[in-house]
Structure formats: C-alpha cells, structure tokens
Design a protein that fits this description.
single chain, alpha/beta, nine-stranded mixed sheet, two-stranded antiparallel sheet, 11 strands
C-alpha cells in the first residue's frame, strides 16, 4: 500500500473512531487546534490542571504536549500527564515551540524529552536543530532554517531518543531510526496564520491514536496538513480566509483531494 493510501486509511479511522486527543497546549492556539481536531473527526480536550491530569489521560487516546506559552504549573502538568500516558502505552506527541529562544524554554524541553520520552517530536527546522543541540537559532517561534538543514539533527533525535521526528517547512520531513519520508504540498499562506505548526502537532495526536505505527501517524498528519493547505489556498484571498477554508478542507477532505494535493518526494 502506498504512503498516501495508508494516510487516507488513517483519516478514515479517525472519522470512524473519533479519538479523544488531550492537548496541553498554549493560549494562542487552543481554539484553532480544537477546531482542527473536530474538523478532521477527532475529539479535543484542553485540560491543564495538574490535579486532573491522570484522570484525563486515562480517558484519552493520545496526549499532545505543546510549550508555546510556558509556566511552571503547566510544566508540572505536562510531566505528570506525559508519564501517565507512557505508563498506559498511549502515544505522546511533543511540540517544542520556540526551543532555543530562551534558557528556560530549552531546559524545559530537555526535561520533558528526558523524563517523558515522547513517541513523536514535531517542530520546525530551527526547533529540531535546537533540540539536538545544533545551531537552532530561532526568530521568536518561527524557523530561520530550511528543512534540509535539520536532517542530521532529526536523525540524531530519532536514534538517540527512539522516537519519530516530523520537521515541517516548505517541504516536510518525517524521520525514524530506519525510515525517512519527504512530502511536498501546502501553501505559502500557511506560515502567515498563527498556530499552523501547533495544528500539525494536534493532528499528529489524532493520527497516533489510531495508526498502527508512530511513523505512519506522523506521515499521515503531515499529508493531511499539506493536502488541506493546498485545498484552502485554492479558495483563499489571504491569511484570514485561508484559516476558514483550512477548517473546511479538513472537514471535506476525501481520498482524491488528499492524493492530489500532496506529493511524496523520493
């Protein structure tokens, strides 16, 4: 079965099973990512109080940790939830937003990756390079590097932490210790809308909840983002209308649209 066909099967599983995705994410994107999860067919929960983390993990199918707006209480909740999810063999997705921009942010990422051991790390090239200790210079939470420059860093993280790494950019790269896939699609409008990377991480959570492997989940999530991005751009006049059409594209996505709006690069 081809990569795109496997990705479509994962979309169908999301729509059939409506997995509950628990996201401890940032204030900027909560509404965006919750709506994206609903549009693709999953169910979102955005709890962050430490006192309810174990129970929330217990009823969820996957966990997404996103450090966009950091605070000590949220970090504690992420660690409690992450360890609980791993204990129950539920997939954990980690989005190291802006790692490298501050010492506090970088130290938090190191703590999470060491203590929780996420199954999937998704970030832009600068974030992935910073996570690996390379020259991951960031501009706020935006990337200053092309995806290709992060390939060695992604391979290092995948091998060293036994995880899958998804790097998003003009091209997307998904890396495990044994596999690598490059994808092309989406739209130049995507970086003009806040939270698209965070949305990709949330979609990773939905895919990981139903996929046979973490690698397949990461590929499917980035295929979905590329395809929905291309569909939305065809109708949008700018970033505002793109955001609206992107949610509609997730909701109306079919197999033909998925395949025609994303290319698997050799």
């Amino acid at each position: 079965m081809t990569i795109l066909n496997r990705s479509w099967n994962i979309v169908e599983q999301i729509r059939s099973n409506a997995p509950l995705v628990h996201s401890i994410t940032n204030y900027v994107v909560m509404n965006n990512t919750a709506n994206a999860l609903l549009a693709i067919g999953a169910s979102p929960i955005m709890a962050h109080a430490q006192e309810e983390m174990v129970e929330m993990v217990g009823i969820s199918n996957s966990l997404v940790l996103n450090i966009g707006t950091l605070s000590e209480p949220w970090i504690s909740s992420m660690l409690v939830a992450g360890k609980a999810a791993k204990a129950e063999s539920k997939p954990v997705i980690f989005d190291p937003v802006g790692v490298g921009a501050s010492t506090f942010r970088t130290q938090t990422c190191t703590k999470i990756i060491q203590e929780v051991s996420p199954d999937l790390i998704r970030g832009n090239p600068s974030e992935i390079m910073a996570m690996a200790g390379a020259d991951g210079q960031t501009k706020g939470v935006d990337s200053m590097h092309a995806t290709q420059t992060a390939e060695e860093a992604a391979k290092y993280l995948a091998e060293h932490f036994d995880c899958v790494v998804a790097v998003s950019g003009e091209q997307d790269m998904i890396v495990s210790a044994t596999e690598i896939v490059w994808l092309q699609g989406g739209s130049p409008l995507m970086p003009k809308v806040t939270g698209m990377g965070c949305t990709a991480s949330a979609i990773c959570g939905a895919c990981a909840a139903v996929a046979d492997t973490t690698f397949d989940a990461a590929v499917a999530a980035m295929v979905i983002m590329n395809s929905a991005g291309g569909m939305a751009a065809a109708k949008a006049d700018g970033p505002g209308s793109f955001q609206m059409h992107f949610l509609d594209a997730l909701y109306s996505l079919d197999k033909d649209s998925l395949i025609s709006n994303c290319t698997v690069k050799a």
